[in-house]
Amino acid sequence: MNARALLLVDLQNDFCAGGALAVPEGDSTVDVANALIHWCLVRGDAIVASKDWHPAHHGSFARQHHVKPFTQGQLDGLPQTFWPDHCVQNTEGAELHPLLADQFIDVVFPKGEAVNIDSYSAFFDNGHRQKTGLDEWLKAQKVSELIVMGLATDYCVKFTVLDALKLGYEVNVITDGCRGVNITPQDSTQAFMEMAAEGATLYTFADWQETQ
Ligand code: VGL
Ligand code: ZN
Description:
Blueprint lengths: L2 E7 L19 H15 L2 E7 L19 E4 L2 E4 L25 E5 L22 H7 L2 E9 L1 H14 L3 E10 L7 H11 L3 E3 L1 H6 L2
Helix pairs in contact: 3-4
């Protein structure tokens, strides 16, 4: 009872250097992830990951709407930022970062597979219409506490954390294990503030280690 899980959000090639939607310093989160994996293995925590996993013609892709990437629009009645094509199913860009110790991940939850809706959160799509299976999996393992890190701070990490809090999990965010897209420069800072305001506890990896 009261088990704990490490949740690694979208540590995929396309969000790292050279990727289609490269997040500045995205790669630098992988060392933090591997260190956390080590800690969690020793303690016997569950280790789970999410993967952005889009069909080739996903509705979040700017190309599908003949608009420039990073512009705003709507997708199936929801506000949508249009992105460069990224994390297309079964492409190298959608693979987890090669240096991530992914052999220790218990289960990976894909998201963003439905063409007409995006899915930033690892728990639900952006309309909260469908669940990914992550919540059920964690509840079956009696997980009540999460350690969350990954990419990108201002999208998938933020919405994953906000959903986790609404679902009743105790959420610890490892800030230096996250990097943001920052379409506007303050987006990541703002995202961390929102997560904290809703009840997440923010730690640097060094500070988190002190608590263990
Ligand atoms: C993400 C934009 C589009 C993320 C995914 O993982 O944060 N951002 N798709
Ligand atoms: Zn995406």
